[in-house]
Amino acid sequence: MTDSSQKPSVLIFGGLNTYSRALAAYLVPLEGDPLVSHVRMVDKYQVAPATTYIGAEFPKILEKEEVDYQQANLTVPSNIPPLFDPPEGQPPYDYVFDLTGEVRQDRTDMIQISTTCNVARILGEEAAKRKVKAYCPWDEKQNPKPSGTVGTWWHETLRILANMEDLNLVILRAALGYGPYTDYGTMASFITVAAVYGYMNKPMKSLWSPGKHPSHTVHVEDIAGGLWACAQWMAPLASSRMSLEAPAPDKKVTAPLFNLADDSQMTLAETGQLCTSFFGTTFDFFNFFENTIFKLKDDIVEEINELHVGHWTEMILKSNPPIPNTPLSAYMDKYYLEKTVVGFSNSKIKTVTGYQLSKPRFNHDTIKDMIDKWKAEGSWPIL
Prior knowledge:
By secondary structure, the chain is of the alpha/beta class. It has helices at 20-27, 58-62, 80-84, 109-130, 148-162, 186-200, 220-234, 268-278, 288-296, 300-318, 334-337, 347-353, 364-377; strands at residues 9-13, 38-43, 67-71, 95-98, 134-139, 171-174, 176-178, 204-206, 217-219, 257-260, 283-285.
């Protein structure tokens, strides 16, 4: 499709602090033809000036004529319908990407209900009314079995959406995301802390010996590409749902779901070794005695983080040129220090949608690309 009027139009809700910037860059690249005729992005953040980290390249994406950014409070139902109205003279939106939802592990049930379940319900209702061709939410629940506040309410959110009539729903569940200008998530934190141990010339240690459990990863370009592939796959299909209310707890509801991970299929130990070796150090595990003591101490998280944050601050202060501000932190909250199993097969999305990974391997080259771009924008210390 070369005629822009024949290309689909897209709505992206939320995710400015996670993956919507990567999705926008995929749909409307700085170089090359856009995949869409128009994309409207909506989030609570301001972008000029930015009230959250948006990276060095995203402001250039916002300058594209195909891109419209609007700031809005998505928890207010009356704000939603006008956002679905296309610009004058343009057809209704074809695809809706829902990247909303609270990702912080320390948020209460009430906050999760308000900002995750309720927002998705309102957006899903409006998308169903507008008969959009594809409604594609990103699933933060990286464990197939819901656990904790985030896992529980993201899972319930998907059940609510899957129960909606006339909503062409397709769900993408991504592994541990990483990539340029992505300061969110386990991998950004892990890489930053690995750099700290490289700076200290000490091994980085984990509590979870022997580290053979999976820690699968996926590049943000592939999260964007996977979302697009899901929407294009769903658009020609028909879908029938039953109501706009939360289904009964014992009721089974279904919706198409694709897992997305790269081909690295690495374990925790392999991921740790890869990251630390990039910074000239090693990855190891505490011995049984140390493990037993650490797991019994409630304040172990703060003790570990005092070491991380102190040396990261030292690195920032020593940087030449100076770094006035960085979105990156060496602080690892309790969730990041817990044993987290992320093991997804990508065979279904490849087979069913035909999607091909643009970054099939997490390796030193992909880490270098991240670090180089952070250095260039002044977010990573140059020592």
